[in-house]
Design goal:
The complex is a heterodimer of chains A (114) and B (113).
Chain A lengths: L9 E5 L4 E6 L7 E7 L6 E7 L4 E3 L3 E6 L4 E6 L8 E10 L4 E5 L3 E6 L1
Parallel strand pairs in A: 1-10
Antiparallel strand pairs in A: 2-7, 3-4, 3-8, 5-6, 6-7, 8-9, 8-10
Chain B lengths: L3 E3 L3 E4 L5 E7 L5 E8 L3 E10 L2 E4 L6 E7 L2 E6 L8 E8 L8 E2 L3 E5 L1
Parallel strand pairs in B: 2-11
Antiparallel strand pairs in B: 1-3, 3-8, 4-5, 4-9, 5-6, 7-8, 9-10, 9-11
Classes of the chains: A mainly beta (114), B mainly beta (113).
Chain lengths: 114, 113
């Protein structure tokens, strides 16, 4: 079946280092790929998206890379801060013809060490 | 700010009960979603809706139904609750077709005993 996200369950980085969170997907019909951040006790929050016909998109301190050849997505966080500690989910948006299906991967726990 | 409100933060129900989880959004969003979140499994899509009275099955619809009689409200129904439906349930909404930014509620922790 379709799937999004083959994550490492936990990633630990030192404060100030760059973080790279990876995700694999299997559905080539996705219109967009998206990254969400979930802090403890809260619902997921949108970070950044990338259209399926793009390779790279940059936001504030974050960069998303899309490699369609190997069906791989990554989120890079520059100068990781303690406030970046959270679970990160990649997600895909698929136009079903009747609506937009938004499905999530299993998530990666990012721990920032001081 | 967009606000997505789920009616209960914690809920305990008995096996076999009919359970209603309510979700209301206040920003006139067209799309609404119900997910369940379990450790190690991420968020799994149960149902979604792109308009009033419209619904589509997600990846795990079995044992659930939904209702969207008004644009702002999307209800998840467990017809006969079972212990394997113990989970965190998250509702979300997004503005319109093609919008990738979904706004989530705080979640409802449902325990079925």
């Amino acid at each position: 079946g379709e799937s999004v996200g083959l994550h490492l369950p936990t990633l630990s980085v030192q404060e100030g280092d760059n973080s790279i969170i990876n995700c694999a997907y299997s559905n080539s019909a996705s219109d967009y790929f998206i990254w969400y951040k979930q802090e403890s006790g809260k619902g997921p929050q949108f970070i950044i998206d990338i259209r399926s016909n793009m390779d790279k998109r940059q936001g504030q301190r974050v960069t998303v890379l899309l490699n369609k050849t190997v069906k791989h997505l990554s989120l890079q966080i520059a100068a990781t801060q303690p406030g970046d500690s959270a679970v990160y989910f990649c997600a895909e948006n698929i136009d079903t013809g009747g609506g937009n299906k938004l499905t999530f991967g299993t998530g990666t726990q990012l721990k920032v060490e001081l | 700010d967009v606000k997505v409100t789920q009616s209960s933060r914690y809920l305990v129900k008995r096996t076999g009960e009919k359970v209603f989880l309510e979700c209301v959004q206040d920003m006139d969003h067209e799309n609404m979603f119900w997910y369940r979140q379990d450790p190690g499994l991420g968020l799994r899509l149960i149902y979604f809706s792109y308009d009033v009275k419209m619904k589509e099955k997600g990846d795990i619809p079995e044992g659930y139904s939904v209702s969207r009689e008004k644009k702002e409200r999307f209800s998840l129904i467990l017809e006969s609750a079972s212990t394997n439906q113990t989970s965190m349930y998250l509702c979300a909404s997004s503005l319109e077709w093609g919008d990738t930014e979904a706004f989530f509620g705080q979640g409802t922790r449902l325990t079925v005993v």
